Amino acid sequence: MSYTAPSDPKKPKNVKISQLCELCHSRKALIKRPKNLQKICKLCFFHVFETEIHNTIVSNELFQQGEKVAVGASGGKDSTVLAYLLKLLNERHRYGIKIVLLSIDEGIVGYRDDSLATVKRNKEQYDLPLEIVSYRELYNWTMDEIVACAGVRNSCTYCGVFRRQALDRGAAKLGIKHVVTGHNADDMAETVLMNILRGDVARLEKSTAIMTQSSGSPIKRSKPFKYAYQKEIVLYAHYKKLDYFSTECTYAPEAFRGTARELMKNLEAVRPSCIIDIIYSGENLRLRPKRAKRAPPQSHIEVRSDGSVSLPSQGFVDGNRCERCGYLSSNSICKACMLLEGLQKNRAQMSIDKDISVHGAAKLTRTLENLSF
Ligand SMILES: Nc1ncnc2c1ncn2[C@@H]1O[C@H](COP(=O)(O)OP(=O)(O)OP(=O)(O)O)[C@@H](O)[C@H]1O
C-alpha cells in the first residue's frame, strides 16, 4: 500500500513509517493504548479518550440541560480526570450542566487530609465550587476511630456505607440530584467478577448499570468512566499534567476485593480486552426471575469467612425515612445507623474491658482482635 505524506507541518523527520501514529499517520507514536494496544501519538490519544467519554455520556443520556451535577472528588486520579474532563466536555459540547466538586472527609489522618488538599487546589485550577462533608459532622466518628474500635478487617464496609450516604447527604444539602463518580472499567469488571465468585446474583444484576439510584433516594449516581481503562486514565492525567493525589488508602482494600483485583490484573496482562469483555458479559446476563418465596430476613450483621460484612435486609419501602437519623432510607433503620449501633456497643464494651483489665493494652488488643458484629 502506498504511503501518503501527511500534511502536518510538524511531521517529524527521520521517523520510520512503522513508528508513526496509527491514527493520524503524521506524528510519532508515543503511546501503546492499554485498551487495544494501538500505537498512537499524544494528541490522538487525547482525542480518542475524550471522544469515547463523550460518546458514553451522550449514548446513555447521562445529563440534562440545566442539571446541577456533583463530582465525587477524592483527589485521586479517577475523580480528578473526571472533574477536568466534565468541565472540558461541558464547554466543548454544551451539555449545559453546572458542575460542583463534592468531597467526603472520612477522617483518615495522613491520607484523606492530604488528598483533600489536592481537591482544594483542583477547585482553583478548574474554577469549580467545592463542598466538603465529613464523617465527623455526620456520624460523630472518623474512620481512624472506627478502625481503632472495629479493626481494619471490615473498614471498607463501614467506609463504603458511610461514604455512599455522605455523598447523598452532601448532594441533598446542595440541592443536587445527580452525583457522578470516577468508577472506571477496571472497578466495574472487578465488581462483576467478585459477585460471580460469591454467587451474589442480586448485586450481579446491578453491577454493570451506568446509572443507579438507591430505592427511596431522589439522588441518582452515574459512572461516565464505565468503559475507561484505569491505565488510560492514569496516562491521560500524566500527559495532561493534572494535579492528583496518588497514595493508596492507609487501610488495605477488603481482602476479597484485593484478590479479585489481582486476578483481573493477571487476566488483563494476558488479554487486555477482558476488562471490556467482562463488563459486556455482565451487561448481557439475564437472571432467572426470582422465586416468590424468599428466605426469612436476616436480622443481624454477618461477617463472612472472606472478611466482608453482610448487612441485614428488610422490606423495601420507597420514600421511607430512617427512624433514627431521619435521612431517606428504604429500610426502617438505615445501614449507616445499623453500623453506628454496632460501633457504639463496641465502644462501650471496650471501655468496660479497659477499666477492669489487669493487663491494660494487651487486653485491649485482644478485645480488638476478637470483635465481630
Ligand atoms: N472521599 C471521597 N469524596 C468524594 N468522592 C469520593 C471519595 N472517595 C471516593 N469517591 C468517589 O468514588 C470513586 C471511586 O472511589 P475509589 O475509592 O474506588 O477510588 P479510586 O478508584 O482510587 O478513585 P480516585 O482515583 O478518584 O480516588 C472516586 O473516583 C470518587 O468519584
From TrEMBL:
**What is the name attached to this protein's record?**
Cytoplasmic tRNA 2-thiolation protein 1
Gene3D superfamilies (UniProt xref): HUPs
Organism, scientific name: Lachancea dasiensis
Alphabetized InterPro entries for the sequence: CTU1-like_ATP-bd, CTU1_C, Ncs6/Tuc1/Ctu1, Rossmann-like_a/b/a_fold, TilS/TtcA_N, tRNA_thiolation_TtcA_Ctu1, UPF0021_CS
Q: Which residues form the Cytoplasmic tRNA 2-thiolation protein 1 C-terminal domain?
A: 320-350
Report one GO cellular component: peroxisome
Q: Which UniProt keywords apply?
A: ATP-binding, Cytoplasm, Nucleotide-binding, RNA-binding, Transferase, tRNA processing, tRNA-binding
CDD domains, per the entry:
CTU1-like
Kindly tell me the pathway this chain contributes to.
tRNA modification; 5-methoxycarbonylmethyl-2-thiouridine-tRNA biosynthesis
